Amino acid sequence: MPEKTAKRKVHLQSSPQALDESRQWLLSKLKEYKYCEDDVFAVHLALEEAFFNAVKHGNKMNYDNEINVDFTVAPDKVEIIMTDSGEGFNPDSIPDCRVGENLYKTDGRGIFLIRCYMDVVEFNEKGNSIHMIRHHRKPTNSAESKSAID
Predict the structure, then answer these.
(1) How is residue 36 annotated by DSSP?
(2) How many independent structural domains does the chain possess?
(3) What does the DSSP assignment read for 41-61?
(4) CATH number, domain at 68?
(5) Domain membership flag for residue 143
(6) Which domain holds residue 59?
(7) Could you give the strand order of the β-sheet that contains 129-135, starting from the edge strand earlier in sequence?
(8) CA–CA separation, 139 vs 145, rounded Å?
(9) How far is Cα 58 from Cα 121, in angstroms, rounded to an integer?
């Protein structure tokens, strides 16, 4: 496993397809650093949810706006900071998607999922930047010790 930290900073168009190359880079680094399947799934899901929220809600599907993403992959953790060009929001104002009529709504689950799968989830004061960390887990059994992306 590499001892060095891998970093990448990108400025992406506010389009769902714009994430493809950076996603592949991140997944290849997770493989290189021997992250387990659970870690890979968690980081991949959180990245997708955060990016699509930035495109749809932050930048309001305006392809002229950018989304800035900083990736850091280290032997002990993955860190992602994503900032959109939008006005921001109050993350505490998002209703719990597990309660009442929210249970049947098709939206409002992205932030919930990110919080479930990442170890640290923080927003800047404006609410247009998310900081996510997932710590590298040790596999719990021999079947999980295999890299997730072989």
Answers:
(1) -
(2) 1
(3) HHHHHHHHHHHHHIIIIISTT
(4) 3.30.565.10
(5) no
(6) 6-135
(7) 6-13, 66-73, 77-83, 129-135, 120-123
(8) 5
(9) 17
pTM for this predicted structure: 0.89
Q: DSSP class of residue 146?
A: S
- Structure confidence at residue 137 (pLDDT): 87
Identify whether 58 is part of a domain: yes
- What is the distance, to the nearest Å, from the Cα of residue 147 to the centroid of all Cα atoms in its chain? 20
Q: How does residue 141 score in pLDDT terms, banded at 50, 70 and 90?
A: low
From residue 37, give the alpha-carbon distance in Å to each of 17, 100, 115, 148, 149.
Answer: 24, 33, 18, 4, 8
Residue at 147 is within a domain: no
Average pLDDT value for residue range 109-128:
97
pLDDT at 3: 76
Tokens found for residue 36: 């387990």
Residue 85: per-residue pLDDT: 97
Is there a domain that residue 25 lies in? yes
- Confidence (pLDDT) at 139: 63
Q: Is 3 exposed, middle or buried (0-12, 13-18, 19+ CB in 10 A)?
A: exposed
Sign of the CA dihedral with 79 first, then 81, 127, and 43 last: negative
